[in-house]
Write a structure and sequence with these properties.
There is one protein chain. The protein has helices spanning 68-77, 79-83, 93-103, 107-124, and strands at residues 17-19, 26-28, 33-39, 46-51, 61-64, 89-91. Helix 1 packs parallel to helix 4 (107-124). It contains 4 helices and 6 strands, in the order βββββααβαα. It is 35% helix and 21% strand.
């Protein structure tokens, strides 16, 4: 028989576990980057996907490992639109910049990432 914690939770609590929209693996909330879609008032029909570093912005959020591989998978699968439940065109510039900053890329890799970011923007449009 399994001993239950005194607060009544199951022995293996899944609180704080989220699924990455890129690789679809589950991870701790603290290891993932939360993003939300914010309507871009300057461009009707377009939303900016912004990182929620404090994990407190209102609205539906999606979770992503802060690495380029997961971001590439999200873009290739067009998963942000489904995860955030929006039909708007999505601007990913802020998320790309945040993932780059969190990875701490060196200057050689940064050039390749800028080219990849331009490619991602073209695919989304």
């Amino acid at each position: 028989m399994t001993d239950l914690p005194s607060d009544g939770r199951s022995p293996r609590s899944h609180a704080g576990r989220r699924t990455c929209v890129g690789c679809r693996r589950r991870g701790e909330r603290s290891a993932l980057l939360r993003v939300v879609a914010v309507a871009d008032e300057a461009r009707p029909g377009t939303s900016r996907v912004v990182p929620d570093l404090r994990k407190r912005l209102p609205g539906r959020g999606a979770w992503l490992h802060p690495d380029a591989d997961c971001l590439d998978k999200v873009v290739a699968r067009r998963a942000f639109g489904r995860a955030l439940r929006t039909a708007d065109q999505l601007d990913l510039d802020e998320v790309v910049a945040t993932v780059e900053a969190l990875q701490g890329e060196n200057s050689k890799d940064a050039e390749a990432t800028v080219v990849a970011a331009d490619r991602r923007k073209r695919v989304q449009r």
